[in-house]
Write the C-alpha cells for this entry.
Amino acid sequence: MSQSWKYANPVNVTFGVGSISRIGEKLAGRSYCLLTYNDHPAFDALVDRVSKEAGRPSVVVRDVEPNPSFQGLRAACAAFGAAAKVPQVIVAIGGGSVIDTAKVLAASGKDFARVQAYLQGRAGADTLLNLPIIAVPTTSGTGSEVTCWATVWDTDAKKKYSLAHESLYPEHAILDPELTLGIPRALTLSTGLDALSHALESIWNVNANPVSSNHAVFAAREIMVVLPQLLERLDNLDLRSRMSRASLLAGLAFSNTKTALAHSLSYYLTLHHGTVHGIACSFTLPAILRSVIGKNADCDAALKQIFGDDLVRGASNLDAFLAGLGVSTQATDYGVTQDNWLNAINDALLGERGRNFIGSREAILAAA
C-alpha cells in the first residue's frame, strides 16, 4: 500500500428497512425513467408502489438482461427514447444488471451508439451524456450503487467492456434490505460471493488504501459469518440487513480500487462457459489468497484480520467455506481444460483488472 493515498466516493447513501419510500423525496419533483426487471411479480408491485409514491414515471423500461449486451442495451435505449417527456433522472430498481443498464442509459440517452463508440475508442468522454441516477439495489452483492462503472458485454465478439466515468456515480443509493427478502437461494449465494470477491480483491490490489481496506475487512468478515446462515433462513430480515450492509461496504471498498485478478478471470468463464458471475469470480479466491501471502505487509495485515495470523490455514478455511456452500474451487469443474485455464490466467493478468493484482504470474500459476 502506497504511503500516499486518497479515498473518495460522492454517492449519498440511505440505508434501512422501508427506505424505498424516500424515492419521492430524492426525486424532488423531477421527471424520471423507472428501470427494472420484468420477470417477477415482485417488480410489478415495485413499479406500482414507486409510481404511487413518486408520481407516474415518464417511461418504464423493463427489458433488462442478466449480462447487459450491446443488442439488449440498444433496445433499452430505444425504449428510453420513447418517453413522452424527457426524463431528468433514472430510478434503477434491481440487481447489478439493472444499475449497470441505468449507467448506459445515463451516458447514452436514446442512442446506444454514443456509448458503443466510446467503449470501442472511437469517441471521447466528452460525447457522453450525464443523467442522474437513483440506484435501489434488490440484491446484496453488486456494489454498483456506489461505483462509477458498468459492465457491458459484446456477446457476438465474446468481449467484455467496462463503461467507466466519474459522472456515472449514482446521485443517491437507497438500500432497503426488505427488497432482498424474495431473492431465491441461488441468487443469494452468487451475489453474496460476488460481494466477498469485491472485498478481498480490493485488498490484494495495487490501489488499496487504509479506508478501502477497513471497509473490505468488515465486509469479508461479515459475509463469511452471515452468508451460510442466510442461505438456511432466506426470510430472516436481520440477516438480509447485515448482508446488504456488508455488500455496500464491499462496494465502497472496490469503488476506489476496482477489482483484480479473480474478476478478470471470471469474464472468460462467463463469456465462454456461461458460469454465473458470482461463482465465476469467487471460486479462485483461495488460490489467489495463497499466491499473495508474504507479498505485501499491508495486504497480509488486512487479510490476517479476516482469516487469522496463519494465512495458509486461512486459505484452507476459505476452501472449506466455499465447499460448504457447494462451490467447487477447481476450474476444470466449470468445463475448462487445464491448458485453457492456464491461457486464461495469462490473459487475465494482462487485462485492466489483472494489472491491479499485487501478485505474480509465477505465484498464481503455482497456486492454481
